[in-house]
């Protein structure tokens, strides 16, 4: 299978390359990602300025890699419509440094990249680890591989948009994996005003998140050191994805905890 990897932390972010390293086990991975950090740009696509694409020497040899002077959404649109000829089977965005939970999912560039893949009719995953420092990428990369294998093997519906978050703990400390819903957050943003000599300007300064961490929410799962998997789209397919996830997640979690290389899953290993 052919996989498009993107992110919002920029093309050289370590999380992206840990993801690529894991996913090349299961298919042909292409990287098309923003040339710099684009956190918080959501699903946005650049329509008012031209976009430039630059081929990059990848940190991992043999991976076709392109930097886009734009958003994760731009990267996915250019990858699917221009850079990659012959189609893509799946889009994975991440591994983001920092959680993407609750209402914040709708401004997340990481999730935005996955949304764009989903808009184009592809199964898509966003993967984040809930910390900005000393991030444990290993369990997240391995879980991405396990979930992609499930998609390839037809155990998850093709119409799929998953937002996956892991607590920032070593594998041994993960307490489980849960199908969750987005928590609500109350916003405490502050508007700071200044003057540049010509006119007034304003900064939106994000306040500390106040979460309503109900049972079943993504935020509560992360607080309890559990992996949170949120099926994002609305409509009947959402229940299909949730039901399929509930069936496979206990086994996926056992495989995740077992460590080492995941068992070969025959149906998912056809490379094209
Ligand atoms: Mn980010």
Question: Would you give an account of this structure?
Answer:
- With 272 residues, the protein is α/β, with parallel strands linked by helices.
- It has one domain (2-184, 212-266): Stationary-phase Survival Protein Sure Homolog, Chain: A, CATH 3.40.1210.10.
- It contains six helices and 13 strands.
- The strands form three sheets. A nine-stranded mixed β-sheet has the order 3-4-2-1-5-6-7-13-8, with helices on both faces. It has a two-stranded antiparallel sheet with strand order 9-12.
- Manganese (II) ion (MN) binds at residues 8-9, 39, 96, 98, 109-110.
The low-pLDDT segments are 268-272
Q: What is the fold named in CATH at topology level?
A: Stationary-phase Survival Protein Sure Homolog, Chain: A
Distinct ligand kinds: manganese (II) ion
Number of strands: 13
> How many structural units, i.e. domains?
1
- Characterize the main sheet: 9 strands, mixed
Provide the fold topology.
Blueprint: E1 2-6, H1 14-23, E2 28-34, E3 53-55, E4 65-68, H2 72-83, E5 90-97, H3 109-119, E6 124-129, H4 137-152, E7 161-166, E8 177-179, E9 184-186, E10 190-195, E11 200-205, E12 210-212, H5 218-223, E13 227-231, H6 236-258
Parallel strand pairs: 1-2, 1-5, 2-4, 5-6, 6-7, 8-13
Antiparallel strand pairs: 3-4, 7-13, 9-12, 10-11
Helix pairs in contact: 1-4, 2-3, 4-6
This protein binds manganese (II) ion.
């Amino acid at each position: 299978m052919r996989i498009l990897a993107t992110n919002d932390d920029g093309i050289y972010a370590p999380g992206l390359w840990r993801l690529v390293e894991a996913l090349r086990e299961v298919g042909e991975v292409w990287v098309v990602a923003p040339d710099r950090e684009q956190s918080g740009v959501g699903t946005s696509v650049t329509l008012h300025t031209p976009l430039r694409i630059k081929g990059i020497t990848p940190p991992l040899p043999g991976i076709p890699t392109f930097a886009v002077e734009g958003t994760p959404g731009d990267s996915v649109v250019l990858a699917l419509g221009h850079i990659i000829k012959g189609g893509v089977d799946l889009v994975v965005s991440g591994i983001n440094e920092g959680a993407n939970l609750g209402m914040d999912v709708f401004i997340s560039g990481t999730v935005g990249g996955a949304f764009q893949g989903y808009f184009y009719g592809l199964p898509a995953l966003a993967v984040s680890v809930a910390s900005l420092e000393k991030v444990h990428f290993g369990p997240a990369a391995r879980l991405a591989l396990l979930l992609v294998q499930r998609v390839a093997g037809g155990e998850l519906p093709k119409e799929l948009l998953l937002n996956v978050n892991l607590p920032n703990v070593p594998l041994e400390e993960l307490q489980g994996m849960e199908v969750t819903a987005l928590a609500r957050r109350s916003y405490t943003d502050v508007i700071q005003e200044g003057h540049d000599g010509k006119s007034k300007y304003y900064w939106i300064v994000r306040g500390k998140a106040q979460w309503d961490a109900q049972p079943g929410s993504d935020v509560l799962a992360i607080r309890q050191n559990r992996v949170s998997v949120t099926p994002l789209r609305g409509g009947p397919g959402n229940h299909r994805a949730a039901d399929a996830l509930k069936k496979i997640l206990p086994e996926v979690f056992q495989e995740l905890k077992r460590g080492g290389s995941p068992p070969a899953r025959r149906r998912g290993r056809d490379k094209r």
